[in-house]
Amino acid sequence: MSERPLEFRVLSPTAILGYGFPESSFERGMEADPHCIAVDAGSTDPGPTYLGSGKPFTDRTGVKRDLRYMLKAGIARKIPVIIGTAGGSGAAPHVAWCREIIEEIAREEDLHFRMAIIHSDVDRGVVLRELNAGRITPLPFVPELTPESLAQTSHIVAQIGMEPYFKALDTGADVILAGRSYDPAVFAALPVKLGFDEGLAIHMGKILECAAIAADPGSGADCVLGILRGDHFVLRALSPERRFTRLSTVAHSLYEKSNPTELPGPGGKLDLRGTTFTEHDNGEVTVRGSRHVPSDGYFVKLEGARRVGSRTVCIAGSRDPIFIAKVDSILEAVHARVDMILERENLAGSMHIHVYGKNGVMGRLEPETTVTSHELGLVIEAIAPTQAAANTLCSITRSTLLHYGYPGRISTAGNLAFPFSPSDIPAGDVYEFSLYHLMPLADPSDFPITVQEV
Amino acid sequence: MRRPITELARVIRSKNSGPFELTLDILFREEANYETIRDTRQVTPELIAGIYGVPLEDILSVVYFDPAMAVKATFRRPIPSGVPGDSDIYGAQQHAPLLRLEFDV
What we know:
The complex is a heterodimer.
Chain A: E1 8-12, H1 23-31, E2 36-40, H2 49-53, H3 60-77, E3 81-84, H4 92-109, E4 114-118, H5 124-132, E5 137-138, H6 147-152, E6 153-159, H7 163-170, E7 175-178, H8 183-193, H9 198-208, E8 224-228, E9 232-237, H10 246-252, E10 262-265, E11 268-271, E12 276-279, E13 285-288, E14 291-294, E15 299-318, H11 321-325, H12 327-345, E16 350-356, E17 376-384, H13 387-403, E18 424-440, E19 449-453
Helix pairs in contact in A: 3-4, 7-8, 8-9, 12-13
Chain B: E1 2-4, H1 5-8, E2 9-16, E3 21-28, H2 31-39, H3 45-52, E4 59-65, E5 70-76, E6 102-104
Antiparallel strand pairs in B: 1-6, 2-3, 3-5, 4-5
């Protein structure tokens, strides 16, 4: 497709590839004759571990199931299938994981197509050069990047904009598989390339990337259709049990972002101050007036995580009213005793006990100071340089707490109830976000693209 | 008249806005009540800092959003998402202190 159609229809099957969708909704979407099928496959929401470790956070069976529908329908209709932020975090191992699933489906279904793969990994040397030149800027509340934390960062990705997608579309690809991407770019790239308004296309992408979450009732596992025209776009739910309402759509503008009217992205920001939302009786909503304002210089957000250690957890409970009344002083004493053992035995690590029934959910943000529950749930979290060391630290903490003779104790057989044996669960590597910074790009399309005939 | 937030709002929620921020949304039911609360600035950075016990400089913004009859407050996570000691990776269960608020409408 190279000529601009009167309207451009995008089918968004699900909020995150692998979350699933009803077959009937997908078929209803295909009956609307979409110009492309696009899906966002990732997020930073599940935490830093997935990007850091290179592991997907979505389930392989679910991803393969969703992709099978999308690839079969897209190839049969000769419309592009576009997948952004492959594997949940969009670094090289995530893209390779998703590519293997696509190739497997192609073999099983005897599908043949051209696939363009966009790699959004960024070379560490490039980031270091920019850092030394003073051109790496942290987002609010993000610690400054140092050469040390950069060296410890396992995978570095850029949240790419539409420009690499333009290049991938130029290869004549039937399927585009991309690394970390600005979510709306996945949906907006093709219509913008055909000449549709950037502000409207990106705003539509911003809503479509969450699929039916912005509908009423909301769902992350159902399909929606976006219809982009000259000066507006229309949102249509594809299940009879859902509709878009003015309120469901505007409420979504608030979701997961700090400012609802100015949404920054690669190369500019989306300005929704003049946007209007019109609700129709047929369950559709029309959106007008969204503008894209290019920024002075093109910046992308870099993401990266570094390993901080290994974790072992132990789940336990207390039903003793004397223990519960004194829980703060007991845990303080146990902390001190464990610290003493660590020092004496020359062991590294840190320990934290989550107290459910007190402040397990809100931690230091919890305003409630009195405990009213008759039982408490405790989760011991031990973090140390190696898994073996974390196991040791968890074991020391558990046994110290189990047998700690606090003042006034009358239940002398043991302070904890364990639901499981073994009580301690090795939980693997722990990561933290070390990169969440902006970096300028001279050429926003300059990301490697490989093309393969499947 | 002073009324509890649970009567005035249809949605009260918290969520990450990226791994380093928490964002709170209050979506009101009725336009008149929303406008009163907005015009008399009853949700402020000082209010949010007070009920969450965080320093005022950690409040990034408090924004009123007319199309959704909503006010949104964003502040620094005491512990970034996933850092050891964090208790809510998605930040989706940090809204409860808002439930005790009352507004003059």
